[in-house]
UniProtKB/TrEMBL annotation:
Belongs to the Nudix hydrolase family. Keywords: DNA damage, DNA repair, DNA replication, Hydrolase, Magnesium, Metal-binding, Mutator protein. GO terms for biological process: DNA repair; DNA replication. One of its GO terms (molecular function) is metal ion binding. This is 8-oxo-dGTP diphosphatase. Residues 1-122 form the Nudix hydrolase domain. Its EC number is 3.6.1.55.
């Protein structure tokens, strides 16, 4: 299970890539530690990866897809959230981008490209 954050500002979605695969973009977030709730994992991961804290996270959806690199089944708990500052990539992150609902030609994780972006477009959150 992975907790992931949908952060939309100016009708653009924040996506990140990791140093291990800098050409594949995901939602920020990560796996909960033992005993950690998805919300707590999101808070910890956004702090470690981007130096921000989520503000008023709300459950958007649960997604089952295949992991972009490993190709194994992956379950995501996806939250929409505001953040308390300007995100800056840290920890294992390579890049940070703000994208439109088209994905802007980036290579997106299966969960993001096949499930989450279509939902955000259908909800009118992205251009």
């Amino acid at each position: 299970m992975v907790a992931a954050g949908v952060i939309v500002q100016g009708r653009r979605l924040l996506v990140v890539s990791k140093r291990a695969a800098p050409d594949v973009f995901y939602l920020p977030g990560g796996k909960p530690d033992p005993g950690e709730t998805p919300e707590a994992a999101l808070t910890r991961e956004l702090g470690e990866e981007l130096g921000v804290r989520p503000v008023a996270p709300r459950l958007l959806m649960r997604v089952e897809a295949r992991a972009a690199l490993e190709g194994v089944p992956l379950r995501l708990t996806v939250f929409t959230t505001d953040i308390d500052g300007v995100p800056r990539p840290a920890a294992e992150l390579a890049h940070l981008r703000w994208i439109t609902g088209t994905g802007d030609g980036l290579r997106l994780s299966p969960a993001l490209g096949e499930h989450i972006l279509p939902r955000l477009r259908a909800d009118g959150l992205l251009d």
